Amino acid sequence: MAGFDASFGPLRRPVFPPADAREGPDVADLPSLAIEKVHGFATVPSSLHWVSDSEIVYPCARLVVLMDVVSLEQRFFRRHSAAVTAVAVSRGTQPLCASGQARGSGKTAEIFVWDHQSLDLKLPAFRYHISERIVALGFTFSGSHVISVGSDREATLAVWQVLPRPDVKKPMVPVATASAFGGGAVLGVVPDSRVDTHMHHFATFGTGHLKLWQLSKHNNTIRAKRASFASWGAPEVVTCVLYVRGDRIVAGGKGGELFFFEGGKAVRKMQLSKHQIAGLHPMRPASIMAVQGSGEVCLLTANPKGGGSSGDFELADLSGHPPAWACTPISSCCFRSNKIVTQSSTHLMLVTSDGSSQRRSNGRRLKLLTTQPSRAPTCLAAQSSGVVASGAMDHTVRLIKANGPDPRHGVHFPQAVTTVAFSEPSPQRPHHHGWLAIGGFAGMVGLYSARTLKEIWRRSVSAQNSAMTCSAFSTSDPEEAAELWLALGTQDGSIHTLKMPVSSAECSENSVAKGQILKGHATTVFQMQFAEGVPVQILMSVAVDGNVLAFDVPFGRRSPSVSICKDLVFRPWTLPVGWPVVGCWGNSSARPRADKSADLVSLPERYFCQAPHADMMLATDETTNSLQVFPYPAPSSHCVGGSRGVAHSARLVGLTFCRETAVSLSCDGSLVLWDAGGAPLEATQVDMSRQSDSFISQPRRAPGPDPRDTMQSEDDPFGAIPEQTADDNDLDASIARPADASGFGDFPEWQDDAADDGDPTGEQDHNQHNDSARDVGGGVQLVDDVGDSVLLPRHVAERRVSPPDPATAAEENSWFVGGGSRTGEQRSPGFRPPLRALRADDSQSLNATAPGRFSGWGAASDAVPAGVRKDPVRKSAAAPWTPPLGRQAAEYEDPSAIGRRALLETRRRRSESLTAKIGSSAKQDVQTAAKLAPSGCKENAVQSKGRYMYRIRQDPEEFVLEVVLPGGRLTKVSKSQASRTVTVHGEVEAVWTDGPPATTPEALQIVVPPGYGMHELSLSKEFAGGRAVVRVPRV
To answer: I need a labelling partner for 491 at 20 to 30 A (CA). Which of 77, 232, 822, 908 fits?
Structure first.
């Protein structure tokens, strides 16, 4: 199927559908999203309340959550269109609740009054405050009026009549207004329980003040006076207020102060500690309970003329309390009988007591209700075992299960966490553990057991301390025949790789090895994903500039083109660019987003995830902070999305599936679990015929058994080549080949340029790189510079294949962009997603401009797989021209202006010059003219030199050299007895230039140690595949 250009936000990229392309299901058949559970809460003052003996209410993002503290079941009030900033509960006979929100897209900050039993709206929305948000809400003690305070400069206070119910046909207007406090913030509204036939009494408190109010029950007039703190002076912040009896009031301060008021004047001050007073509760007889920010609970006498502490206990001493590194000071509390719910910026905890006032804690129990990070979350990951992990800038990774917080709490990391990833445990071995990978803000990576959270390995992998931005594990091998790979993208565009066992059980730090650093992206790596299937480990990565690259992770090589990934299986799909998600961008509300300081455009921050149980996927919308259901795949730009999931009020930073449950995370700490419907999908067998045994794109082969199946070893990336033994005078005689010319089954042979140059035999083209070759019966004898010769088969010099079919070649292209930037597009040097929620003091290095050393790097969109010549007739005339790697466009003239003949002649001369230099390297300068590899390297270790991958093994009987040239082919192997060297010559397709085909010569020279006979070496080869094995016996 032919490719087409598609829009991905402000960027356009060519995409190519796979061979089995299909449309997704109809939108009408897609399930709708429903909220299952919400983890997190809004840390706003005075918004945590009891509504019954077992249910509490609190705000979270756009929701008001009602949670049963026994079963942890939740209900949701979902009428708000922006973040909920205040909640109040009536103490009257009616089960009323009021909730206020931020202004959002409207002109005013709305307030809703609703029934907390039925969740029905009781009155039209209150629209009066033009401030950014509602900061405080409260009911009068009878529940007849609602008091609201806005965040404007004067802290405007409005009183609304609720009972008796007003005429709902008329717009709701306040019955009284006033300025609550013009010198600071207002944190709460507390009603007075005294019985007064003429007045409603309540108090407001906040920054350095306590204000007492009276509202007339007859004409709705309102009066206020400030409470006097006498000679002690007002505290910095009044954090809580308690009406004891009549005009007696107790107020707590931020510095641990307690003030006792009578008639609006403080008569005593008590200093409990330096920690703020988080909550006050009346106790009998004549005592009060004070909860401090440090977690200490004190029982005090309420009589201002005497008293003191009569009993206290620490919450940290109770079983089940989170570790100290995961906790923050308590900010507020709510009390009900013998139960206390405490709220900090990280936890909601329930404490129940049997009524004992002794210091012992045997009669008290603590239960963790929900948790969230204290600073902005940055990343999200899930495992099929039902565990969800979220990382944040507070150096923590928190674990959450479907039914509540994980009792293991999480991991404390030395750096701010910027990426997390899970590996899946082996389904055939349930006792084996998976891995938990954590990436840090300054380039540190940690590996932990996903089951026990034991730290196994931790290192700083980035020499530039660049932030880790994304991570992905390869597919686990059920039979554990291959290692597991971890890829970590960074802000500077590099991708670091690590190799480890499939299971983390009984592993040590020596079990983890560093792999190659993958280069190619010019901007920050945004998302990565491994293809399914083993042992092939193919990685696709997307940068913030929208470019997509493909890598062979074990070989540490970048593919010249992503076209080989067209028919590979990526499940679940998570990349933001590609053929399956074209339709998800068609109706997105995301708009082109430019950095005016640098005049750059980047990919909008959107997250995608395919459902494991149905042909559907979810996508985030950065404008509305919502989720939308799409069919999978969605290749049409006219695709219409399904239902939306609205719960978050801040920017989304993660989206994934945990079994059949969707999980989304926003930068305000709210983590929402969604019911996406559908039945479990049966496991499908990976079609290994579409997975190449190496990352180098191979030509199409005829039907039948694949000879590569017998060549590939279980754990050997080099594969196995049939053993051949002969001396150097008759190497070809002992090679038993199939009838085909290539020597490896029914593979077609490689294309040469002989036909274009008027050489029907191809020998002129082959011998221009080997002037010392001469015909010998049965083969071609290659004579080196010192007179030694090696006899190779004639088919190496006489390879032919017909030109590729244009239709077939078009199908070989990928649905991804080839990696190069198109004309008119700018690259984004800085990192935007997913770390824009960082605080200013943490994000200095992230906002720095990334180096532009990779500018211009990338194959053109018409790139073809390595080893296949580009046909000049089929090359698109409109394809953009890019300069050679590492050069600027200004240094070169457009090839179309030079002329094809002149350009071809220039490249031919360069090739001949480099070949002559390599050919004379044995006599002149071996180290500079060829890639000289040391003979004393570690045995059996895979080494790399230039573009070659090689391995040396020294046995008592022989010296073995295994060589692989990824993306190229070998041309000859020569030896020199004088210098005791073996030189492997090859060539690699030059894909970084346009115009006629060109190759780049490559040479690898190995020094054979003394004690081995150079005159008796044997050769096993697959020159077309770029592989060879040389054996030198011991003398």
So the answer is: 822
The pLDDT value given to residue 676: 86
Residue with tokens 């009068």: 140
993 CB neighbour count, 10 Å cutoff: 19
Q: What is the mean pLDDT of residues 717-741?
A: 37
What is the 3 state secondary structure string of 840-884?
A: CCCCCCCCCCCCCCCCCCCECCCCCCCCCCCCCCCCCCCCCCCCC
DSSP annotation of 80 reads -
Residue 569 in tokens: 């299986």
Dihedral (Cα; 80, 86, 87, 88), 10-degree rounding: -130
**Per-residue pLDDT tens digits for 133-192:** 999 999 999 999 999 999 999 999 999 999 888 777 778 899 999 999 988 899 999 999
- 577: which DSSP letter? S
Q: What is the DSSP letter of 102?
A: B
Judge whether 499 and 487 are in contact, CB under 8 Å.
Answer: no
d(CA 315, CA 331): 14
Containing H/E element for 420? Answer: strand 417-422
Structure confidence at residue 1025 (pLDDT): 83
Question: What stretch of H or E contains 895?
Answer: helix 895-898
Phi, psi at residue 102, to the nearest 5°?
A: -75, 165
> Cα–Cα distance between 337 and 351 in angstroms, integer?
11
Lowest mean pLDDT among 29-38, 207-216, 501-510: 501-510
Helix (H) or strand (E) holding 653: strand 652-658
Neighbours of 905 (CB within 10 A): 11
**CA separation for the pair 604, 548 (Å, rounded):** 15
Rounded Cα gap, residues 350 and 660, in angstroms? 30
CB 668 within 8 A of CB 685: no
Which residues is 214 bridged to in the sheet?
A: 201, 223
Distance CA 471, CA 488 (A): 4
> pLDDT for 759-804, tens place per residue?
433 333 333 333 333 443 334 343 333 333 333 333 333 333 334 4
| Closest by Cα among 636, 635, 619, 617 to 627 | 619
Look at the block and give the residue holding tokens 């405490």: 342
Alpha-carbon Rg for the chain in angstroms: 36
Instruction: Answer whether 526's CB lies under 8 Å from 544's CB.
Output: yes
CA distances from 88 to 47, 164, 749 (A): 6, 19, 78
Q: Pick the more confident residue, 834 or 478.
A: 478
**76-80, 197-201, 682-686, 905-909, range with greatest mean pLDDT:** 76-80
Among 597, 579, 607, 1024, residue whose Cα is nearest residue 817 = 579
Helices (H), 661-711: 708-711
Report in angstroms the alpha-carbon separations of 2 from 573, 576, 761, 780, 807: 22, 21, 35, 43, 8
> Mind listing the pLDDT tens digit for each residue in 109-127?
999 999 999 999 999 999 9
One DSSP character per residue, 785-829 reads: TTS-EEEEEGGGTS---PPPPHHHHHHHS-SS--BPPPTT-----
CB 571 within 8 A of CB 610: yes
Omega cis (within 30) before 1001: no
Question: Residues near 955 by Cβ (< 8 Å), separated by ≥ 6?
Answer: none
* C-alpha distances out from residue 803 to 57, 809, 861, 908, Å: 72, 10, 20, 21
- Cα distance between residue 607 and residue 791, in whole Å: 57
Mean pLDDT rounded to a whole number for the chain: 75
- How many Cα atoms sit within 13 Å of 115 on the Cβ side? 8
For residue 918, give the H/E element and its range.
helix 900-919
82 pLDDT tier (thresholds 50, 70, 90): very high
Q: Position of tokens 């700490």?
A: 669
**Is 662 in a helix, a strand, or coil?**
strand
How far apart (Å, rounded) are the C-alpha atoms in residues 696 and 623?
41
Closest CA to 485 of 435, 433, 526: 435
